[in-house]
Amino acid sequence: MAITAQDVNKLRQMTGAGMMDCKKALTEANGDFEAAVDLLRKKGQKVSASRADRETTEGSVFIKTNDNNTEAVLISFTCETDFVAKNEEFIGLGNTIVNSAFETKAENVEALMNNQIENLTIAEKITELVGKIGEKLEVSNLVRISGEAVVPYIHAGNKLGVLVELKGVNGEDVTVAGKDIGMQIAAMNPVSVSEDDVDEAIKQKEYEIGKEQAIAEGKPENIIDKIAQGKLQKFFKENTLLNQQFVKDSSLTVAKYLNTVTNGLTVASFKRVVIGA
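Predicted structure:
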């Protein structure tokens, strides 16, 4: 049957696909719009499969919090190029996905992919957009935090996102402090909140490095352990959040800064997600 320009435009409005793709799909589907939509989705699946080995090192982070700032979810929605990361449809789908993750309390990416949006799963919605954009797209990370106060922070360019859980709030508005700590985490990339939270394997590794350095420097055997322990303490000071120098005032540690905001305020946990990491 003859495919009119009006038919092509209608399908284009329905799907957002290119004019030529719409015309080919309608022709192949003999004018059946539902079948044409399926064909366009299949095209997306083929594009997705053909690009499965590509790396998605660009994209954006998206964050959703509840109204009283006690719960938040963060996802990274990634693509191949920065050009696509700035695409309105890409950003729109990213926001839709993070809202779905928040509302359904999806615990991981696999569960999130099965959520329904407009009678399609999120996996299918991503595949549709792959067909239109022609790049591999994926949700690379999903993290969530809940607690006494949860403050989000997105670094310039939307390439890095942080969620900070604060405790000891004492009824105070700690949004500014939470943003400050989010910036600290973004800039300094601590391995944990405090030395108590550092993985034992990391502690042992840093101790052994300190020990080997002392031996290489020819230090007496009876003080090698003490030197290694000292280097381990330095590692804690530089790499655990509460012990780090506060980036906005180097005369304070992060722990001391928080105590100036409200007595007893501290960080319970944090999540840091970086595009391309």
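Summary: The two ends are 51 Å apart (CA to CA).
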